[in-house]
Amino acid sequence: MAYLLLQLTLPASGQREVLEALRSVMRPARLDRDCVAARIMRDMDAPEAITCVEVWAREDALARRVASAEFSRLLAVMEALPSRPSLEFVLSGVEGLEYVEAVRRRAEAGPPEELGRIDDRDAQHERQPREAPADYEQGDAEAPEGLPAEGEVTHARKDPLT
Description:
It is built from four helices and seven strands. With 162 residues, it is of the alpha+beta class. Helix 1 packs antiparallel against helix 3 (69-80).
């Protein structure tokens, strides 16, 4: 499984347009046979916090998604936001925008079937270890159903995702 997590904060006055844009960008993902789930969620305790999650059956399917025209529209929506969103990819570890750059660079260089897994052998991109944010702690807790299996996630949040 491969995961895309987008977290953003918006004042209530600007949410309608952004939510419509996010829905239109996520519709094609929901139709993809390799997309297990695509959801937009609002935090009940913090209505300005919005989380988008896409779950993909395989990493190469997520790579196709990142290289697509629809994902370019998602990037445009993110750039237009008043505050910087958080974008993470959960593969064999956690990655951010450097993953988008690597996949899109490879997509420009060859056909989609060659996108495959971005790994340390890829001469165009070297993964750099990321330091865990201060609100993460190392843990051995069992992952809830639908989340990455043990060994796929390296850190768990102390507080719920917002």
